[in-house]
Design a protein that fits this description.
Blueprint: E1 7-13, H1 20-28, E2 36-41, H2 48-55, E3 61-64, H3 70-80, E4 85-88, E5 94-95, H4 99-109, E6 114-123, E7 126-130, H5 140-145, E8 155-157, H6 158-163, H7 175-184, E9 189-201, H8 211-224, H9 226-252, H10 257-268
Parallel strand pairs: 1-2, 1-4, 2-3, 6-9
Antiparallel strand pairs: 4-8, 5-9, 6-7
Helix pairs in contact: 8-9, 9-10
Length: 275
Amino acid sequence: MENIKMVSVVIPTYNREKTIRRCIDSVLRQTYPVSEIIVVDDGSKDATLDILECEYEEKVTVIRQSHKGAQAARNAGILVAQGEYIAFLDSDDEWTEQKTELQIQVLEEQPNVVVCGNGYVVQNGRKSIFRMRGYSGNVYKTTLTNSFALFQAIMTKKENLLKIGLLDEKVPSYQEWDTSIMLSKICEFVFLDKPLFFYYLHDGETISKDKKKDVDGQEYIYLKYRDEILSQFGVKGLEQRYKKLLDRCINYKDKRYFKYVLLYELSKKGILFLR
């Protein structure tokens, strides 16, 4: 294959002895070869490291860190990556076999974009298409209101990730949403309506399995980008965000319900609190 572009994949992991093989094997099966597999172990206490060092010693680069979280692990991987392009994968998920090939086909023509796409959700042995409403082009305004690019699907230049100052390690959830907003300020997106990954839900899980963390993440992002939302969408935009948070607080019986009732009702009247 001529002019092969170097692709590095960054895989954060923590206590994934049962799934890490499946994850790495899916990368090794790619029809467009990945040049570098970087697994950042976030302080695992099970056999994850033993599996990596005994079974994949010559196939992966292992970085160890204390338990700092997935975003810190991804950043550690980004910094040491040698590839021109970087992709991400969580250690309990996997890629479809043509994932990197499909994305490189786009990047050969448009090297500075972010390429993402759809995938499958797998739960209790059942596979269903996880069809997200994706967008291409300048998606900055869209990403302020809608998350459509999961880490499992993202590929872009390492240079772009460095330009945004790496990933925000403080965001508690919806980390790919925050990353997409930051990238959308400097890059256009190309969304492929094709399955690129398998997203595994384990027994008893839902996509928003941690209710408090779900609200925490939404709240963090809305506060972080409050001024930008206001600039792009006006008071009505903030009203809609407060309504979404209010609905989540009601559904999850979160005590922040009272806060967002107040903010929502005031925003409907055009009244905003300063930071």
